[in-house]
C-alpha cells in the first residue's frame, strides 16, 4: 500500500463555545438575583462558574493551538501508521474508528485504554470529492490491521 494523503479539517466547536457562554451568562444572572445570606448556594455557584470558565479557557486554548496554528491539515495513511495533525498513530494504539453521519461524516479515532476520543483525533475530510476515496482507503487500512470501523456518535470529553 502506498502512502496516501488527504486534506482534513477539525470538527466545528463554535456551537459548544456558544453554549458554554450562554450557560455562564445565565449563572451570572442567577448570582446577582440571589440574596447574600445563602452562603452554601453562593459557594456552589462559585464552583460551577469556575468550572465553566475553565471549559471556556480550554476551548480558547484548543482554538489557538489546533485551528489557527496549522493552515492545512492532512491525514496521511501510510503502510504501518496514520499521521494526523503531525501526530503518528500506530495500529496497536487504535481501539476502534467511529464514523458519524453519511455525507461529510465526522471521523473519530479511539485509542486503546482511553474512554473518550481526543479532540486532536477527530476530523472531517475537507474535500467532498475525495471523501469517499479517503474513507475507503481508511477502511482498507483498518481491515489490514483488524481495526473495527463502526457507525456511531463521536464522543469526546468536551
Q: Major β-sheet, in short?
A: 8 strands, mixed
Structural class: alpha+beta
Mean pLDDT: 79
Give the termini separation: 35 Å
- Helical stretch count? 3
Percentage of residues assigned to helices: 25-40%
- Mass-distribution shape: elongated
* Number of beta strands: 8
Low-confidence stretches: none
Radius of gyration, taken over Cα atoms and rounded to an integer in Å: 20 Å
- For the biggest β-sheet, the strand order reads 4-3-2-1-7-6-5-8
| Strand percentage | 15-25%
The SSE string, one letter per element, is EHHEEEEEEHE
What does this structure look like?
This protein has 158 residues and is an alpha+beta fold. 40% of the residues lie in helices and 24% in strands. It is built from three helices and eight strands, in the order βααββββββαβ. The protein has an eight-stranded mixed sheet with strand order 4-3-2-1-7-6-5-8, covered by helices on one side. Strand 5 and strand 6 form a beta hairpin. The longest helix has 29 residues. It is elongated, with a radius of gyration of 20 Å. The model has no long low-confidence stretch (mean pLDDT 79).
State the gist of this model:
The protein has 158 residues and is of the alpha+beta class. It has helices spanning 14-33, 39-67, 131-144; strands at 4-9, 73-77, 82-84, 87-89, 94-100, 106-111, 122-125, 148-151. It contains three helices and eight strands.
Write the layout of secondary structure elements.
Elements: E1 4-9, H1 14-33, H2 39-67, E2 73-77, E3 82-84, E4 87-89, E5 94-100, E6 106-111, E7 122-125, H3 131-144, E8 148-151
Parallel strand pairs: 5-8
Antiparallel strand pairs: 1-2, 1-7, 2-3, 3-4, 5-6, 6-7
